[in-house]
Design a protein that fits this description.
The protein is mostly helical. 74% of the residues lie in helices and 0% in strands.
Length: 224
Amino acid sequence: MGLLEAFRENLPVYCERGSFQPVNTASSLVFFASAFFSYRLLRRRRVKNRLICILPYVVAGIGFGSVTWHSIPNVLSNLADTVPITFFVFLSYFYMLSRIVRNRVFVWGVLFLIASIEIPFLLEALPSLNGSMRYLAVMVSGVFICVALTKRFPEVFIYVLFIVLLSVVALFFRSMDFMVCKVLPVGTHFLWHVFGSVIIYLIILLLVKVEETRIKTSGFSASI
């Protein structure tokens, strides 16, 4: 079996089936709201950091990919769904790690390690619980990064706490989707979208707070 066939055979399945999933598609629109409010946040707080300023556009890409995937489910639309999410995660982690340590080799090494953990789940080489396991792997690594971040920036602890708690709830609903079809025909995947959009906004808010604190304490403006 080729790589394309393997992807096709292992595409995630939801309670909503078929070539169009109305509830999952409609709930994907919340990512555009998250992108809008994130963009407005950056404008209001006059954020200059280029990496952070890219993120609202990446979030809009997440919304586009999610709408496409749940409207026309196939291999290409699944990639359109997963690639922007992965891009957002790695940009966010890169920023956090860069604020924790100054050694770029270490930063890239950690990101490579996270990618090496995620790829087997992405390629379905390991059991993925309908795609949820790779998000769990990313979340666990994110918790360690965020804990280290709070050591350097204690002001962001409350943001980290809410992000972690909401991530657990979101992943629960994503994992439960295919198990509740008989009770709830539309499933619970749409709640993954709703909670996910809030989490994304909070992550951007967290990065903004870190950037503001860093500039305030160091007196330098930021580029990346």
